[in-house]
Write a structure and sequence with these properties.
Blueprint (H helix, E strand, L loop, with lengths): L2 H8 L3 H11 L3 H22 L3 H14 L4 H9 L5 H9 L3 H12 L3 H26 L3 H16 L4 H8 L5 H14 L4
Helix pairs in contact: 1-3, 1-8, 2-3, 3-6, 3-7, 3-8, 3-9, 3-10, 4-8, 4-9, 5-8, 6-8, 7-8, 7-10, 9-11, 10-11
Protein name: DUF937 domain-containing protein
InterPro entries: DUF937
Organism: Dokdonella soli
């Protein structure tokens, strides 16, 4: 599992998972399994967004806006029905937001509507962790893009690679996803 993904998942304790399950009306075990697929999907979408210089600059700016936030407070807000998850997902997936929810819904058994809600709950948490990481490590836009490229490459080689490849629309499935990660790393001078 990749570093950003692991850090996000480490903030989702059993009580948070139970609260997410209750909001979705599903069993906690199903919610936890879906979260294990959803977080890498959001992270992969962020990496895809940062695959251009303009995208990396925009994401760096957005991450800075989320830096310094307390993850517990962010979780409390999204579990209470707040947060800007929908807006974040619009920037992350663009026109593929429905495809992301559909793909996660099928893979997790949640259905597209619940999967969309789950993604909207997790997006602010992912952005807050990313913002805090970026701030702590003093990342430039290029450094952030490079880190996400490595993250994407690692995720593409994991069990989530198929879902990521289908949602991000890469020709060639997993091979295209890995190529995108390699290209992003090369463009950031990390290969």
């Amino acid at each position: 599992m990749s570093d950003l993904t692991s850090q996000v998942l480490s903030h989702l304790d059993p009580s948070s998972i139970n609260a997410i399950a209750a909001r979705l009306g599903v069993d906690p075990a199903q919610a936890e399994a879906a979260i294990q697929q959803a977080v890498p999907l959001v992270v992969g979408g962020l990496a895809h967004s940062a695959s251009t210089d303009a995208g990396a600059d925009a994401l760096h700016s957005a991450a800075a806006d989320h830096a310094g936030t307390d993850i517990g407070s962010v979780l409390g807000s999204v579990l209470g029905g707040g947060g800007a998850g929908g807006a974040i997902l619009g920037h992350v997936f663009g026109g593929q937001q429905g495809q992301a929810a559909q793909g996660l819904g099928q893979a997790s058994g949640l259905g597209a509507q619940n999967a969309g809600q789950l993604l909207a709950m997790l997006a602010p948490v992912v952005m807050s962790v990313l913002g805090n990481m970026s701030q702590k490590q003093g990342m430039s836009p290029g450094g952030l893009g490079g880190m996400l490229g490595q993250e994407l490459q690692n995720l593409g080689q994991s069990s989530n690679g198929g879902l990521l490849g289908s949602v991000l629309g890469q020709a060639g499935g997993l091979g295209g996803l890995l190529k995108m990660g390699e290209d992003l790393l090369a463009s950031r001078g990390r290969v």
